[in-house]
C-alpha cells in the first residue's frame, strides 16, 4: 500500500485518484473493461451493488458451503476459486454503496476474506488460473482494497489468459505506477502504445502521461496533509 489511509479525508482522496482514471481514459475506457479482453469492469463485477436482506443470506450460504469444501480438501483449486468468487460477490452485492462509490466496513472485510481465499487459490491453482476470477479480483483490489500492486498481479493473469490489448496494458501501466513500480509501468505503457491503432499511439501515451500527472498531484496533496515530502509515484 502506498498511502497512509488513516482518516476519512485521506482515504477519500485516494478513492478520488482511482475514480479520476476512468475520466482521463475517455469516460471509462480502461476501468470499465471497454475495449479490453475482460468480460466486464466495475459494474459487471459488482452485480448491481447495494443489496441486502435475502441477497446476503444467499451468498452467506454459498460461502459456508465452499468453506466446508476447502476445509475438507485444502488442495481443491476449484473450491478455493468458488469461495473467492462468492466472497467478492457478496462484498459487491451487500457492501458496495453506489451513491458514494465506496464499500462499507463489512464489505471491506469480505473483500479481505476474498483476497485471502484468492491467495490460497493461486497456491494450488493450475498453470493457467481462472481469468474471469482474476478480473474480478483486479476490480476488488483496485476499487475496494486500494491495493494496486495486487491488482496489477491479477491483471497480468487476465492479460496472459485473455490476450493483450492496448486498453489492458494501459490499465496495467497505471496500476504499476500507483504501486511504485516505474519499470513495469514504462514497459506496460510501451505495450499499450504498440497495440494501439497507428493513429492513436501518441494519444495513448498522452492519456497515460495525464493520468500520472493527476496521480502525482493527488499524492502531493496527501503528503502535505501527512507532512511528508512530495515525489512522483514511479520514482
UniProtKB/TrEMBL annotation:
Region (Disordered): 215-235
Regions that span the bilayer: 16-37
This protein's record includes keyword Membrane: yes
Ranges of Low complexity composition bias in the record: 217-235
Keywords tagged on the record: Membrane, Transmembrane, Transmembrane helix
Name of the protein: Unannotated protein
Species whose genome carries this gene: freshwater metagenome
Amino acid at each position: 500500500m502506498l498511502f497512509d489511509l488513516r482518516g476519512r479525508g485521506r482515504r477519500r482522496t485516494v478513492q478520488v485518484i482511482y475514480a479520476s482514471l476512468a475520466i482521463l481514459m475517455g469516460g471509462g475506457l480502461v476501468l470499465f473493461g471497454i475495449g479490453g479482453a475482460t468480460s466486464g469492469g466495475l459494474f459487471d463485477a459488482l452485480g448491481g451493488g447495494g443489496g441486502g436482506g435475502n441477497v446476503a443470506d444467499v451468498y452467506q450460504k454459498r460461502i459456508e458451503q465452499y468453506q466446508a469444501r476447502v476445509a475438507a480438501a485444502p488442495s481443491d483449486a476449484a473450491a478455493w476459486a468458488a469461495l473467492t468468487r462468492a466472497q467478492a460477490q457478496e462484498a459487491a452485492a451487500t457492501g458496495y454503496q453506489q451513491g458514494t462509490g465506496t464499500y462499507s466496513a463489512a464489505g471491506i472485510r469480505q473483500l479481505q476474506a476474498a483476497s485471502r481465499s484468492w491467495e490460497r487459490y493461486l497456491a494450488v491453482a493450475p498453470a493457467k488460473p481462472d481469468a474471469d476470477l482474476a478480473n474480478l479480483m483486479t476490480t476488488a483490489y483496485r476499487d475496494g482494497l486500494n491495493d494496486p500492486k495486487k491488482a496489477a498481479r491479477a491483471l497480468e493473469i487476465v492479460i496472459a489468459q485473455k490476450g493483450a490489448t492496448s486498453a489492458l496494458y494501459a490499465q496495467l501501466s497505471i496500476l504499476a505506477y500507483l504501486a511504485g513500480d516505474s519499470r513495469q509501468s514504462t514497459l506496460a505503457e510501451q505495450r499499450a502504445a504498440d497495440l494501439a491503432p497507428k493513429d492513436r499511439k501518441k494519444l495513448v501515451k498522452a492519456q497515460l502521461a495525464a493520468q500520472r500527472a493527476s496521480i502525482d498531484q493527488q499524492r502531493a496533496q496527501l503528503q502535505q496533509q501527512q507532512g511528508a515530502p512530495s515525489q512522483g509515484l514511479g520514482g
